[in-house]
Structure formats: structure tokens, C-alpha cells
Amino acid sequence: AERKRKIMIKRKITTMSTLAPIFPTLTGSFTAEAFATHLERVKHLPAWWLDRKRAAYARFAAAPMPRRTNEGWRFSNLATLTLDGFNATPAAIRFDQMAHRELGVTGAGHLVFANNRLVSSQALDTTTAGSGIIFDTLQNALLKHGDLVKAHLLTQPSKLGSDKFAALHEAFLEDGAFIYVPKGVTATMPVGVFHYASGAGTAVFPHTLVIAEDNAKVTVADFFRSEKAKEAHFACGGNDLYAGHGAQVTYVAMQDWSRETLSLQFNATLARRDAKVLSLNLHAGARQARHESFSQLAAPGAHSEMLALTVAHGTQEFDQRTLQLHQAPNTTSNLLHKNALLDQ
Q: SS3 for 122?
């Protein structure tokens, strides 16, 4: 009996070893070692943020990959959804001063990130900066304006099926854009944020945090691009849009990753009393892109306008999901997505 038991154990181990490569690991390229390397690079940031990142990585590592039985994923191509083969710690690179030309608005402030690091910037003009508007990197904001960041950064829950990837984003988020507009102030010019990926297999985690206090107005343009059209990347990004009472936030994003990129983007909006948030997302790039928009209309009179324009070529896959929570009476939301499907 003992001999038979040992033979059965051996057969079971052999069978499991044979089947193991079929099933992807829960962490893929984003191993505990890769996370430790990331933490070492951002160890100068506040302890509360590092603790949140550790908790996020634990959630990510424990969560299963999406399955066909998940309602939010049953129409998606799961065969190509993988965390393997990416570089979790891409090398720093340098970029030319390209944002002036691309933004097309003379004098507008901009930040350019490449492979999760700031490579170029233009500060706000002195008049705008004198009004109290803050336009800086997320790392600087964590150090200088920690209470504001803590109150608004990634505080909205993930409700559209990508809990695992949202946790991965929080765990590996290195830097991004921080825009703060104080009460009653209008940003007369838009600000631009550019996120680039460079190098085959590079993983990037872009983020933009916008805080518009009561009766403030601001327009933000976000751009997501690959340096080379034929490089494969992994992009796992997010944004937080907060509009205080009577505030008006306009957010425009252009996603133009390479046609080999796997992209996941999580947008969270919170609108207070009589606030208006307009979000326009333009989708052109990526091999497979999933975009989730979660809007909370938290007080009477709040309004959310969610617009999207997608142009799909060949076998590109775009998966767009929204959830609008009307948490108070007399709140409104509009949703309009236009999709042009070319080739196959």
C-alpha cells in the first residue's frame, strides 16, 4: 500500500509538472522580486504610500486572472491576456522636446513621461501659477502635498472587473501628473500630459490626478503613445478626476499605443453638487485595449458626460465599460461612444 501511494504521488507530480506551463502564473513578469526593486526606487516617498503599495501588491498576487465565467470578461479575448514577457523595470530614456509641437498650444504647461519617469516639462506661466494652481509630478505632490494626494489618489473602488489589474497599477505606479485648482480659480489654458513607452516589452503605469476645488475650472489633455510603432508594450494606467461643488473639469485623452500593446486603463470620476465633468476618450492604438470608466455623482446637480471615439483597424480589440452611480437626487449623466470598424 505504501509503495502504491508513492507511485501515485509520483504520477500526480509528473502530471502537474507537465500541465504547469499551460496555466499562466498569477504575477507573470511582475514578481515579488520585481516589486522589491520598484519599492527600492521609490523608497523616498511617504511611508503611508509605500504601505498602500505593499497591500496592493498582495491583492494583485492573490487575485486570479479573469475567466470566461466572469460576466465582465466573457466577451473578451482571454487567450491574449497575459502578464508574462514584460519588463517590469524598464530603463530610463531621454526624449526630445516634443510636447510643444504635439500639444499645439503655445505657452501651455506640460509634463512628458517616458518609461514611468519624467523626461521633459514646461511650467505654467507666472500668471497662472500665481493663481494657486499646482501642476507637478505625482512624486513631488506626494512629498509636498501629501494630504491632498492621500484624499484623492486611487480612493475609488474598482467595480468593472479589473480589480487585479487595478491593484497591479497601484503597486507599480511610479510617477504621473498632479493638477490642483483651488476654489474659484479658472485655468485659462489647458495643461498637457504625455506618457510614452519605449523598448520592446516595456511595462508602463501612467496616472493623472486632477483635483478641482469648489467652482474651479480646468481642462486637461492626456496622451498615451509608443516611441516605435512595432514594439510590444504593457500599459496599465489610470486617472482620478475630482470636481468639487460647482466645479467644471474637461478631460481629453488620446490613446495611440503601438499596435502590439496590451492596454488597460481605469478612469474614476467623483462629482459633487452642481459639478460638471466632461470626459472624452479617443482610442486608436493597441492590439487589445480595455477601458473602464467609473463615475460617482455624489450630490444633487452633479453631471457626468462620457464621450468616446474609437477607430479600429484589422483585428484590434477595444473593450469599453462604464458604470455611473447616481448617489443623490437630480443627478444626470450622458454616455455616447462612437466606433468605426475597419478591415476585418
A: strand
Q: Are strands 177-181 and 191-197 parallel, antiparallel or unpaired?
A: unpaired
pLDDT digits (tens, 9 = 90+) for 48-73: 999 999 999 999 999 999 999 998 89
Between the two ends of the chain, the Cα-to-Cα distance in Å is 60
Contacts of 97 (CB under 8 A, 6+ apart): 120
Amino acid of residue 30:
F
Cβ proximity of 285 and 257 under 8 Å: yes
Q: What is the pLDDT of residues 179-200, one digit of tens each?
A: 999 999 999 999 999 999 999 9
pLDDT value of position 25:
75
Residue 168 burial (C-beta neighbours within 10 Å; 0-12, 13-18, 19+): buried
pTM of the model: 0.90
Counting other chains too, the contacts that 49-53 makes at CB distance below 8 Å and 24 or more residues apart are 49/142, 49/149, 49/150, 52/154, 52/170, 53/170, 53/171, 53/173
What is the 3 state secondary structure string of 20-82? HHHCCCCCCCCCHHHHHHHHHHCCCCCHHHHHHHHHHHHHHHHCCCCCCCCHHHCCCCHHHCC
Is the distance from CB of 138 to CB of 178 less than 8 angstroms?
yes
Give the separation between CA 160 and CA 209, rounded to whole angstroms: 20
Sheet strands side by side (includes 191-197): 117-122, 110-114, 191-197, 217-226, 248-256, 276-283, 303-312, 332-341
pLDDT, mean over the chain: 90
Question: Which portions of the chain are predicted below pLDDT 70?
Answer: 1-24, 95-107
Angle at 230 (CA atoms; ends 228, 231), nearest 5 degrees: 70
pLDDT tens profile 230-249: 999 999 999 999 999 999 99
User: Residues for the chain: how many in total?
Assistant: 344
Q: Are 224 and 251 in contact (CB under 8 A)?
A: no
Nearest Cα neighbor of 243 from 189, 301, 293 is: 301
Q: How many Å apart are CA 35 and CA 13, to the nearest integer?
A: 30
Nearest to 283 by CA among 305, 260, 307, 304: 307
